[in-house]
Amino acid sequence: FRPPTAAQGVPVCGGSDAPVEKPSPLQGMYYAITRMGQDGSSLRPSECLSFHEALDLYTTAAAFAGRQEQALGQLRPGFLADFVVLSGDVSADPERLQTCTVDAVWVGGVQRYVRPDASPSPRIKDGPGKHGMAWNVWGQCPCCRQSGPGRSAAM
């Protein structure tokens, strides 16, 4: 999964060969991290990626490939808040990528899906933002919020 061109600085992003395989970023990350074939055999273990390298394939690198790196691929002020909430922590054990479920989907800062039997996440108390202003649900204080596709203008 670590092609020679990547070592030469050529950008690489994640994807799939759907419909031959599932179009699942979680499955793609699993194979990039473990390099295990479906039969359990190891495929070029020297090409295994870390969790963070695999995550980058489907976030910042994918945004770059789509020429959207100024609005997508990261959770930061001014970017669209597109993300999923998984049923557990998948960062320490790649096997969890095979068994976790998507509990919620957020697109443009708006919750678009909640798994019906998902456990409710504990509410995190809003903390102060820039200049002591209260943060909103996107983790930005109102004075830092930028307008753009899927966003409202700053208050």
From TrEMBL:
<dbReference type="InterPro" id="IPR032466">
    <property type="entry name" value="Metal_Hydrolase"/>
</dbReference>
<dbReference type="Pfam" id="PF07969">
    <property type="entry name" value="Amidohydro_3"/>
</dbReference>
<feature type="domain" description="Amidohydrolase 3">
    <location>
        <begin position="7"/>
        <end position="113"/>
    </location>
</feature>
<protein>
    <recommendedName>
        <fullName>Amidohydrolase 3 domain-containing protein</fullName>
    </recommendedName>
</protein>
<dbReference type="InterPro" id="IPR013108">
    <property type="entry name" value="Amidohydro_3"/>
</dbReference>
